[in-house]
Amino acid sequence: MGDPREKIFREAAGTLAARRNAVALTGAGISVESGIPMFRGTQGMWEKYDPMEYATIGAFLRDPEKVWAMLAEMVEVLSRAVPNPAHFGLAKMEKMGLLRSIITQNVDGLHQAAGSQRVIEFHGSAGELICLSCWNRYPSPEKIRDGIPPRCECGRILKPNLVLFGEPIPWTAQEEAESEAEGCGVLLVIGTSAQVAPACDIPRLSKRKGAVIVEINPEETPLTYSVTDLHLREKAGDAIFRLLKFLRQIS
Ligand code: OAD
């Protein structure tokens, strides 16, 4: 008897190949296999650092040096991370003409490092620092080499150009993400616990316009029994590898 989960992978691959118009919404789970910890769960960042104390814009404005204690750890992990087979697999799907874009909540730049061309950074990027006084921007690695916390030429402590709680989503990212979500035939929701708005609302936008929602996550999420059509209950690397195997056979 074959793997009972084989059928659902075949169905997902068949839909991806038939529609040739997928978008991926990714979260921290896709980068776990690159050694970057998740936010939630026992090993997550928010277990160690209370997000209300370390990850809100209010906390940063009050005490940027304290917030940089958490950011320094994040920057150190990100500086060592390289894309994993899940990132490369999505880049391959784009080249095959099956995936039109990626909306990512991650700030690690690993989709671009894997070769994906069209990436919407919904929560900004850790690769850039910004001054909240004069709006100067700097590439992170160079500036951080000079010391932590990094400072602007004006003397103010810089903030990574990523979205902290209480900050709006960059409006171009919000608009592009909505338009991609509403225009796709398949939404691949990969490695997100779907607990943070407005990113967690994206699957509903796609569903309302008739897209098939394929969720890749070893766990269940609030989407699984409400919005998801096909749940591929595996790690992102394994699931995308299996999807590509079927896609090569049928595309
Ligand atoms: P979470 O840490 O909340 O959720 C990660 C999800 O990945 C969980 O549902 C896991 O089950 C799943 N997962 C774990 N390993 C996986 C693997 N190998 N393959 C696939 N899935 C796996 O991360 P996000 O949902 O991305 O925002 O968090 C959303 C936002 O909350 C973040 O962007 C960040 C955070 O607070 C801000 O900082 C504004």
Characterization of this structure:
The protein has 251 residues and is of the alpha/beta class. It has two domains: 1-35 and 84-123 and 169-251, Rossmann fold (3-Layer(aba) Sandwich); 37-80 and 125-162, SIR2/SIRT2 'Small Domain'. Helices cover 41% and strands 16% of the residues. It contains eleven helices and nine strands. It has helices spanning 6-19, 45-48, 51-54, 57-62, 64-80, 85-95, 110-114, 140-145, 171-183, 202-208, 236-250, and strands at 22-26, 99-104, 119-121, 124-130, 137-139, 159-162, 186-190, 212-216, 230-232. Strands 3-2-1-7-8-9 form a six-stranded parallel β-sheet, with helices on both faces. Strands 5-4-6 form a three-stranded antiparallel β-sheet. Helix 7 (110-114) links the parallel strand 2 (99-104) and strand 3. The longest helix is centred in the N-terminal third of the chain and has 17 residues, at 64-80. It is elongated, with a radius of gyration of 19 Å. The site of 2'-O-acetyl adenosine-5-diphosphoribose has 27 residues, from loops.
